């Protein structure tokens, strides 16, 4: 019989939790310093309620949950669901998932969010994919593909680029189902103000105009040192008139060149849920899933 006991001291869980997340980041290709940083940000930056999972009185694993205000609405989070190997596959996973959903719903949460570092499997099939964090280690500067090159963006080009990127960001958020259009606009304004306080002159950022045969075909924006040794690609955009010509992969090669030029060795992107074209592109280019975010509406009946 599966039982759940909320712990007053979650120290034993916390240690193992961080170790597992750090190992998952390293296995995805991140260096030790980057893996430590990302694991620390996720594992220690949240006020988790942790329940011990027991099987007929014996320790079987842990499940960690929290409920927070997200843009004026309560949302639940499942930070961990871990079964010891000897207790895995006996139905405790499903029981823990249902317990987490119920715990969050009882506290007013209208949805439950999870963050995964391994394939979801059948347990979370009913959860909608909100986004994926993808990464690839760049060993050497790739050769230009399809004649695509990148040049620095000019100050005259920046305002139109910024307006386009903010609108595109809103569209990505809404398409993923994460926020309403109004909430997405507010988030876009906040995030861009925080990320680019000095506009085009913000340090450790590269802004590119992508060209082929002397013609502008798209743009790119990378943040270097996002975590140690990692450049984060906030945007690599190929204009609609130039899509279907292999320029998407070529644009990523330009981003990889910029990553190495800045002294980083890993390039990372987020792809929003609902954008299967980008997911397929990243997979074909060797970008592994580092994290996957999913969510489900609450309350719901146990499947």
UniProtKB/TrEMBL annotation:
It is an enzyme of class 2 (transferase). Pfam families: Acetyltransf_1 (PF00583). Residues 148-303 form the N-acetyltransferase domain. Keywords: Acyltransferase, Transferase. Its EC number is 2.3.1.-. GO terms for molecular function: acyltransferase activity. It comes from the Bacteria. This is GNAT family N-acetyltransferase. The lineage of its organism: Bacteria, Bacillati, Actinomycetota, Actinomycetes, Kitasatosporales.
């Amino acid at each position: 019989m599966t039982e759940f006991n909320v712990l007053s001291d979650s120290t034993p869980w916390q240690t193992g939790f961080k170790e597992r997340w750090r190992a998952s980041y390293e296995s995805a290709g991140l260096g030790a310093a980057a893996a430590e940083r990302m694991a620390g940000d996720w594992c220690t930056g949240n006020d988790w309620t942790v329940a011990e999972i027991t099987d007929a009185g014996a320790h079987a694993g842990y499940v960690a949950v929290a409920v927070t205000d997200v843009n004026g609405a309560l949302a639940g989070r499942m930070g961990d669901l871990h079964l010891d190997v000897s207790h895995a596959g006996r139905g405790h996973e499903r029981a823990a998932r249902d317990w987490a959903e119920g715990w969050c719903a009882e506290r007013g949460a209208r949805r439950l969010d999870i963050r995964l570092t391994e394939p979801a499997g059948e347990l979370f099939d009913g959860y909608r994919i909100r986004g994926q964090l993808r990464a690839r280690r760049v060993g050497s500067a790739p050769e230009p593909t399809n004649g695509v090159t990148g040049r620095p963006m000019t100050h005259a080009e920046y305002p139109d680029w910024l307006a386009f990127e903010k609108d595109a960001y809103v569209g990505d958020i809404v398409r993923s189902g994460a926020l309403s259009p109004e909430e997405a606009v507010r988030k876009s304004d906040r995030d861009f103000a925080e990320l680019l306080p000095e506009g085009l002159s913000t340090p450790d950022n590269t802004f590119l105009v992508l060209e082929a045969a002397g013609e502008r075909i798209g743009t790119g924006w990378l943040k270097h040192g996002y975590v140690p040794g990692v450049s984060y690609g906030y945007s690599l955009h190929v204009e609609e008139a130039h899509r279907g010509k292999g320029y998407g992969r070529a644009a990523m090669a330009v981003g990889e060149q910029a990553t190495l030029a800045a002294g980083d060795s890993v390039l990372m992107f987020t792809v929003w849920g609902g954008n299967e074209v980008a997911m397929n592109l990243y997979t074909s280019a060797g970008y592994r899933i580092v994290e996957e975010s999913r969510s489900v509406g609450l309350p719901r009946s146990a499947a």
